[in-house]
């Protein structure tokens, strides 16, 4: 059973109070208000690396984990190790119930090519739901300008899909804000970003984008799917 959002925290008032604050101030506030039942789920995108940099340098006591689908790029696994070493943190692996080969035995090979919503449900959404059990709030790295579905995201919001609070410290940041922070603080980032991959997920569902394409055009290319279903409550979809 997933913990209910903390009743003592006024979501609207908290968002108003945090409006205009820096991402570090928002993270520090969240760590103080929520304590050990706060976690950050990172997918190792550029934004996630910024949040790990902020948490790591400030030594904020925030749990860190990633959804290891077993299908990540070698560059992503290398970045995971580099971030842990650089900041002296542990980023826990949360894995699906089935390995990739067990899933192939149960559902046939390459489920992602035939039914990506089901594959994401099995390898991302269900493990995330289990991983969030017992936490009161989770931090995400979403920005409003990433997708239309994220355009109305707030700094603090309730997350009815997972039954807890959601803290979005980078929600007002732009793409350029993220990369300015990375370069200024020499934050490790995925080597694939320099090879035409602005948005990186599982290897079978991620391709490079061409000049002028939407940054997420390389995710589930050729399908209508644009999200994994982790940050969208009105439709399935990262
Ligand atoms: S991104 Fe692709 S491979 Fe990864 S869980 Fe979703 S459908 Fe499966």
How does this model look, in words?
- 37% of the residues lie in helices and 10% in strands.
- The chain is of the alpha/beta class and 238 residues long.
- It is built from eight helices and six strands; from the N terminus they run ααβαβαβαααβββα.
- It has a six-stranded mixed sheet, sandwiched between helices.
- It has helices at residues 11-18, 23-34, 46-58, 74-87, 100-107, 111-114, 116-132, 175-185; strands spanning 38-41, 63-67, 92-94, 137-139, 156-159, 164-167.
- The site of iron/sulfur cluster (SF4) has 13 residues, from helix 7.
Set down the secondary structure blueprint:
Blueprint: H1 11-18, H2 23-34, E1 38-41, H3 46-58, E2 63-67, H4 74-87, E3 92-94, H5 100-107, H6 111-114, H7 116-132, E4 137-139, E5 156-159, E6 164-167, H8 175-185
Parallel strand pairs: 1-2, 1-4, 2-3, 4-6
Antiparallel strand pairs: 5-6
Helix pairs in contact: 3-8
Bound molecules: iron/sulfur cluster.
Oligomer: single chain
Tell me the β content. Answer: 5-15%
Which ligands, by name, code or SMILES, are bound? iron/sulfur cluster
Instruction: Report low-confidence residues grouped into runs of 5 or more.
Output: 1-5, 233-238
Structural class: alpha/beta
Report the principal-axis shape: globular
Sequence of strands across the biggest β-sheet: 3-2-1-4-6-5
Amino- and carboxy-terminal Cα gap: 23 Å
If helices are DSSP runs of H or I spanning 4 or more residues, what is the number of helices?
8
Topology, number of strands: 6
Share of helical residues: 25-40%
């Amino acid at each position: 059973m997933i913990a209910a959002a903390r009743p003592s925290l006024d979501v609207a008032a908290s968002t108003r109070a945090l409006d205009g604050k820096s991402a570090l101030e928002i993270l520090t506030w969240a760590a103080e208000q929520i304590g050990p039942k706060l976690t950050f789920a990172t997918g190792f995108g550029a934004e996630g690396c910024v949040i790990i940099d902020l948490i790591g340098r400030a030594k904020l006591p925030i749990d860190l984990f990633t959804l290891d689908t077993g299908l990540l790029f070698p560059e992503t696994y290398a970045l995971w190790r580099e971030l842990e070493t650089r900041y002296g943190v542990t980023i826990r692996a949360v894995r699906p119930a089935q390995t990739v080969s067990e899933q192939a035995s149960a559902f046939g090979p390459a489920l992602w090519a035939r039914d990506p919503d089901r594959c994401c449900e099995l390898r991302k959404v269900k493990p995330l739901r289990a991983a969030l059990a017992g936490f009161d709030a989770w931090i995400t790295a979403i920005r409003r300008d990433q997708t239309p579905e994220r355009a109305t995201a707030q700094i603090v919001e309730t997350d009815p899909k997972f039954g807890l609070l959601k803290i979005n410290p980078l929600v007002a940041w732009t793409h350029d804000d993220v990369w300015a922070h990375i370069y200024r603080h020499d934050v490790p980032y995925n080597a694939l970003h320099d090879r035409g991959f602005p948005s990186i997920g599982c290897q079978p569902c991620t391709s490079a984008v061409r000049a002028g394409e939407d940054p997420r055009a390389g995710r589930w290319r050729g399908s209508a799917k644009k999200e994994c279903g982790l940050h969208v409550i009105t439709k399935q979809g990262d």
